## 1
Amino acid sequence: MDGAAIDGGWYLDMLAFAKATPWLHGFFEVFTNAGLLLYALAAAVAWWLARGDARRSAAVLWVPIAVLLAYAVSNLLKITVREPRPCLRYPAVPPLFTCDFATDWSFPSNHMTIAAAAAVALLLAHRQLGLGGLAVAAVIGFSRIYLGAHYVHDVLAGAVLGTLVALCGLVARAPLTAIVSRSQVFAFDPRLQRRR
């Protein structure tokens, strides 16, 4: 798959913008990875807020499950589609990071897939944390293009993939709730006992 034929022009325009805004480099270089850690923190907060409520706890439990499933599907797509990284397609226009992705395919963006899966799964579990997660996902997605790691369509595909996997939580909620309600982790909380 030749990603440059899809939106290579947008990729080059974004690199030009990135090179014209050096004061943003540090932020995006850090946030592109560190932003993903915010989802672990948000999930921990959501778990604490949901304690004693089997249904809400099950929704939070879906967050890491959705992330792992989305990541697995994303990697399967990568080795199936085998789209070279844009930095390899445009060697004369170096990105803001070291282009060492000769064996790591570009489509879809794993970062965006994980961020979208985590954000949407969080939205199903806790509205406010989920909305914050969506904002973080948008910044992460932008950073992947800004840094030159992905084409725009790689990021959009990751967003769609992560969202679709996370929405499977609507189907998984009932069995997860049954599992959580029988777990000894929650047995100490009298509020849960009243819900059984």
Note: The chain is about 75% helix and 0% strand.
## 2
Amino acid sequence: MDASDTLAELGRIRLDETSLDDMLGRVADLARQAVAPAREVSVTLLRGGTAWTAAFTSELARDLDDWQYELGRGPCLDASASGDTLSLPDLADDQLWPAWATRAHAAGVRSSLSIGLPIQASVVGALNVYGGTANAFDPAAIVVAERFASYAAVAIANAHLYDNATTLAEQMRQAMRSRAVIEQAKGIVMGERRCSPEEAFALLSKVSQDSNLKVREVAEGLVAKAVRRE
């Protein structure tokens, strides 16, 4: 699959049919196919100073990132923070991150390429491409990787927005359901105790505290009990 095919495949991913994790995993797989010399690929995400590997093509790819997180420095972290492209042609002779480069070289990785991904204001990241030979990524390969990364950043940003919107919508639905059942329970209490809505809610709250249950759970139990009596 050439670069154009991978970009087309990336564009065909439907957000309503794919989870955010699956989307990120697909980005990593397609990047390895797009950048021909790539041995392994990972996607780093960085939020509030905390970095994690959101997708990887192998355990080695994840380890290469984790070693950088442990050290607190490395190309994937710097690319995430700056948005730049950082190419390390030969890890045997790297002077910027020697501790990480030595460990990566011992694991069989000879070169790396990290490209910043501007995803959201609060979330940034990097596409990390690791090569099995020195000088694996020539200028043409870097152009392909940067082009893919620019499309991937948009896809990941959209996936984040969709995931956040879906989560918010579900939270709102749950809140509406909770409110409805609590109102039903208040009505039952008001009918039985001949009390005000405020007094009914206060009673539900007290039962909630005494039983170590949420008010919604107390209300659901009361409504279910009332239904059984009918």
Note: DSSP finds eight helices and five strands in the chain.
## 3
Amino acid sequence: MTSLSPVKELTCLSYADLTEDILCSKQPLILRGLVKNWPLVLSGLKSNVAVTEYLSCFYNQKPVYALLAGAQEKGRYFYNDDLTGFNFTRKPYQLDELLKQILGMADQTEADAVYVGSTSVNHILPGLRAENDIPPLADKPLVSIWIGNQSRIAAHYDVTDNVACVAVGKRRFTLFPPEQLDNLYIGPLDFTPAGQPASLVDFVQPDFARFPKFKTALEHGFVAELEAGDAIFIPSMWWHHVEALSDLNILVNYWWRQVPVHMGAPGDALNHAMLCIKDLPPEQREAWRRLFEHYVFSPQPYEHIPANAKGILSSIDENLARKLRAMLINNLNR
């Protein structure tokens, strides 16, 4: 594979280094050592047993849901061969029992893969954030934990901005800017391994005969190798492939959007466009493309319309967002 460029790094001496400029960046950035003093990180540096005992102090016995993949999948969570299903199963566990299972597989050369995906920290580990948090991000709406052994998660995007903190183990992130969409060979939009559309390319063994444009994507990709205590900022809509490289891996991440909470979900607009626009006759589809460009992607001040008559052409506030939702619900229910 093509050698990828490294992600730019910033050594974080304190949380004060996590400035607003970083949190609004348009480029990924490694935050080396950002959470190196978390007790969670320090316990993991002692031993895998120590970190599981530490987590058990906060666990409230609510079930977690783990994805299980056979050893033959080599940690890759993906579709089955014909994309009619997945190569893993989903099963509820008690977290403390699951951690024991992961530790028991640590020395196996052909171990099954176990992966607890995005799970609210506050939901299953109340109190953990009192000792392991990032003050500049403490008010972010969603803080999740990810736990497992070695795994590979297909390249996908998130609508949110993301600071992902490696608490235990090592991880490799492979990232691509949004404009590489055409070269990543994205799978189905509505049937996905983990919620977001994902690349069909196996990054470890890419099939360039089947996916030739992936070579172009690699020319524009970046790679980040993170140790325990490091973090990475991933901007909204950047594609990222994530590999957990250790026998026990724990990641904590912070998600947020740089818009008010009343803003709608862009994915809903995409789905509605699939319903209403994608299969129109070409000349109509082109006319609607121009309308979207005019009103959405290159909006004008529309000074020829009096301010009191601009309606939904005005800046979207909470009241106007509520009105738009009501209009959409009314139209969709016809």
Note: The two ends are 52 Å apart (CA to CA).
## 4
Amino acid sequence: MARWRSSGLMAVACAVCLTGCSTLGEREGTASRAALRFEENIRQVDGTRACAALAPETRQELEQSAKAGCAKALLEEKLPDGGPVREVQVYGQQAQVVLNGDTLFLSSFPAGWKITAAGCTPRPRQPYQCQIKGG
């Protein structure tokens, strides 16, 4: 009986591990798709849809610093063309999507992944420098 109980616990533990991994993969895929949609909206000069992909604080920061509406301000930023995804990392409710020409940071909201920073470039031993970011 103890042997069956032990085997059953092992099976449950393995199932939990596999479910956790697939959930992480799904979250990475969803974050990646959100970043690519944002990039596509920028390329298509659709500031309204691109702004809808921004986190609320990021949108507010952009509008305040540009003293203009989000769509106009976002398109004036001249963000780099991101290109294809190179790497995605998800840490809890946060994600980093590294594209060939850009790095984006995202946060998970009830409505899905939202862009918290874009136009980001790495700096040695310092935080990323981002063209658009929330407060």
Note: The beta strands are 85-91, 94-99, 103-109, 112-123, 126-133.
